[in-house]
């Protein structure tokens, strides 16, 4: 099985130093080349694919700072570690300002050199991943504000593009915090109503005495405190889209009035004896199963069928963990716009912890966690120690595997075991793919070789979890 080895180039006019670096780093399983000529070193870097360059500052043919500047101009992603026998505060500061990652002074120990190179490689991988995530976010924002590269999110985006041009009523199902309102906004943006208003209202926040007035409006004197005519949300959304969140909370009486509006496209403000027509597309959302409510006698069957013309199911974040890096990066960038922060991204370890966490609060929870970190930390990267204990500790719970209740019978226990087994295997398989692709720098052929699989089989597994290559 072939294992990818990072490529290191040493540029130093002292051959003994070059040989020492080669031996130390090859023992640490790196691929190492060297040259005594700074000019030849520049050519090797430009023409090659080196990850880290070890560079002497004092060479007779060319000054090390000049070599550093040329390398950074042509290959900005290459990490340069200065090695010098003349290490001073002034020279090291100058080198770092010019783009060097770090420095080690001669004579150095094998451990010092190896640690410096490993840190440079880690920084390169982290910066590359964070840059890729930012590019992905920019690409997604050109078409929709929905964030995700998982198969589940791709399917949702495809459905949105199909249903948006129609006038059918849509009901979005999903757990709290999954982004149902963003999906409703995307449907509106892709529809021929996108020049009209998009109005969102959370029905769970309105009292039963106010919800009818809020939806349909009222006339002066309709009730105590109604000192003037006021339009409702249906009127405000005329010509556009009205998003009714948590529609399952509507009273039985109001359900009947909603049904009438959907069938007649006419509303009557509270206290008025006149109706007027409205042209509104309705999108509703709920975190409950409306059909179960119908069977329980808590939701009108006729209204259910009017609302459920096109059902759209949003999976919880725990079932699309490959979307977590993009979401975390997006919320980090958004929070930085509102706060002065030095944070540039996430370490590999911190992101791995976030990906493996089950996120019971879904997208809303990950946003809150990231915003809290931005507000309280002044480091350059989000590290494991910055994460909440429940995420950093990553203690497994039943919720990690979709197990909401403890089984009460032997048959339920058997079903729970099977479900946990399936979810755990899927969780491991996703991370197996992710880790292999990261080690292979997202080269699918190389990743398949690393894990000992045929490329078609590896690629099929990637498609299964909606993971795409970055070539």
Can you walk me through this structure?
The chain has 471 residues and is α/β, with parallel strands linked by helices. It folds into 4 domains: 7-137, Rossmann fold (3-Layer(aba) Sandwich); 155-315, P-loop containing nucleotide triphosphate hydrolases (Rossmann fold, 3-Layer(aba) Sandwich); 317-354 and 362-393, Helicase, Ruva Protein, domain 3, CATH 1.10.8.60; 396-471, Arc Repressor Mutant, subunit A (Orthogonal Bundle), CATH 1.10.10. Helices cover 49% and strands 12% of the residues. It is built from 19 helices and 14 strands. It has helices spanning 15-27, 38-47, 64-74, 89-97, 110-141, 151-163, 180-189, 208-216, 233-236, 252-264, 290-295, 301-307, 324-338, 348-356, 362-376, 389-393, 410-439, 444-451, 455-464, and strands at residues 7-11, 31-35, 52-56, 79-84, 102-105, 170-173, 198-202, 241-245, 266-267, 276-277, 281-286, 310-313, 345-346, 381-382. The strands form 4 sheets. It has a 5-stranded parallel β-sheet with strand order 2-1-3-4-5, with helices on both faces. A hairpin with an 8-residue loop joins strand 9 and strand 10 (276-277). Helix 13 crosses helix 15 (362-376) and helix 18 packs across helix 19. The longest helix has 32 residues, at 110-141. It is elongated. The model has no long low-confidence stretch (mean pLDDT 84).
List its traits.
471 residues, alpha/beta, Rossmann fold, Helicase, Ruva Protein, domain 3, five-stranded parallel β-sheet, 19 helices, elongated
